[in-house]
Design brief:
The structure is a single chain. By secondary structure, the protein is α+β, with helices and mostly antiparallel strands. The protein has 3 domains: 3-195, Tetratricopeptide repeat domain (Serine Threonine Protein Phosphatase 5, Tetratricopeptide repeat, Alpha Horseshoe), CATH 1.25.40.10; 200-212 and 223-325, Arc Repressor Mutant, subunit A (Orthogonal Bundle); 333-398, Arc Repressor Mutant, subunit A. The chain has 18 helices and 11 strands. The strands form 3 sheets. The protein has a 6-stranded mixed β-sheet, with helices on both faces. A 3-stranded antiparallel β-sheet has the order 6-8-7. Helix 7 (105-121) runs antiparallel to helix 8 and helix 8 packs antiparallel against helix 9 (142-158). It is elongated, with a radius of gyration of 25 Å.
């Protein structure tokens, strides 16, 4: 490796892409192409970075398997940063195996981290947690240790394990300082802010207040009956009744919980559950049927009694009824949550992360764009969507991943 290539590599490792480009910007040999690709990625030029890394992989040739594998790993990192989640995980796995076989443990571990970060983004938390446990962080370089701890914190935050997340972020902070990479330190700092940012609203007895994630965790662990509007469920401690696929029942449960300990008029319940302007006899009959279904669903947690004016919710074991509401009430809240990371997403990547059809996601994006909440960049297959992070709000509970049962 010549001196310019070595100097450029050191500059990139320290997070200085411009310093690297000063040394190799006009070179077209394989190592220079690879380093130029990494530099462009650090500058946010994803398309150019991909093209350069692919050119580098071709230029290295079949005999330089390790160099080609490193290019594959770098391209996968670019794809992840660009939120292109459809890249071939099998190709990255093959590159990782090649690196391990040739003793390049650091880059092999980096490939594993990329695989786990992708799993985290698409909500496959169990698999991400299992793979992360297989990776020995103690043997990793400082920058990779910071990434490892960021992933651990991300999993813990999605599972509402705030103390675990806090400990992982503290370790990530130390590793980032040791690595001496400013961009990595900023990433850790931004992740840590989520713990102190309002993530939900608590509604009880007509009063409303904001909660941070630790407050949410404490509320879900308490003995209160919680109507969780973030995950569309009713729960007391570890007993959970999911209602995500039964929107009418959940609407009734939330209306009754918000009014507790008072009752709710039948006409108000009809308007809330069926969005009807007028409660005629057919709607009243339908309300009786749905209340009966809700009684059956919540039989273990609460009783729903008829009153002279309507219906009232009476918890069986809990002394308090609380509604846990999202920080932002929007039918497309999950889309907003993913876009709030400040990165640009394709509709296909959002569909993969949400587990929804691309057509439904595109409709949601069009609706949000019409309301000025998101904006599109580019055209055709190159189109990406992004939104500024929601000011003062953590979007963790808007993500479509079930909360822990206990």
């Amino acid at each position: 490796m010549d001196s310019l290539i070595s100097a450029a590599a050191h500059a990139l490792a320290a997070g200085d892409p411009l310093g690297a480009l000063k040394r190799i910007a006009l070179r077209d040999d394989a190592p220079a192409l690879a380093l130029r690709g990494i530099a462009m990625a650090q500058l946010g030029e994803w398309a150019r970075a991909k093209a350069l890394l692919r050119s580098a992989a071709r230029a290295f040739g079949a005999k330089e398997a390790v160099a080609r594998a490193r290019c594959v790993v770098a391209e996968a990192e670019v794809a992840l940063a660009a939120r292109d989640l459809a890249w071939a995980a099998r190709t990255l796995d093959t590159a990782r195996a090649t690196l391990e076989a040739h003793g390049d443990d650091a880059n092999a571990a980096h490939a594993r981290c990329l695989e786990i970060r992708r799993l985290l983004l698409i909500g496959r938390l169990d698999e991400a947690e299992r793979r992360l446990a297989e990776l020995d962080s103690a043997s990793l370089p400082a920058a990779l240790r910071a990434t490892h701890e960021l992933i651990a914190a991300g999993i813990a935050l999605r599972r509402l394990r705030t103390k675990t997340a806090q400990a992982a972020l503290a370790r990530a902070t130390l590793a980032a300082r040791e690595a001496g990479i400013p961009a990595l330190a900023v990433e850790v700092e931004q992740a840590a802010r989520v713990l102190a940012t309002p993530a939900a609203r608590r509604i009880a007895r007509g009063e409303e207040r904001l909660l941070v994630l630790a407050d949410v965790e404490a509320l879900l662990a308490s003995k209160a009956l919680v109507v969780d509007a973030c995950r569309r469920a009713v729960r007391v401690g570890g007993t959970v009744v999911p209602l995500a696929t039964r929107p009418v029942l959940f609407a009734l449960a939330r209306a009754l919980a918000e009014a507790w300990p008072e009752d709710v008029a039948r006409d108000a319940l009809v308007a809330r559950a069926f969005r009807a302007k007028r409660a005629d006899e057919s709607y009243r009959a339908r309300l009786r049927v749905e209340i009966g279904r809700l009684r059956k669903a919540l039989a273990e947690l609460a009783e729903i009694s008829a009153t002279a004016g309507g219906f009232v919710l009476q918890p069986r074991r809990a002394r308090e009824v609380v509604v846990l509401a999202p920080p932002v009430e929007d039918v497309h809240a999950a889309v907003i949550a993913f876009l709030a990371d400040g990165e640009s997403w394709s509709s296909s990547a959002l569909a993969l992360a949400l587990g929804a059809s691309q057509r439904n996601v595109q409709r949601a994006l069009d609706a949000l764009a019409a309301g000025g909440k998101v904006q599109a960049l580019g055209r055709g297959r190159a189109r990406r969507w992004m939104a500024a992070p929601l000011p003062g709000i953590a979007t963790t509970l808007l993500l479509s991943v079930p909360l822990p049962n206990g």
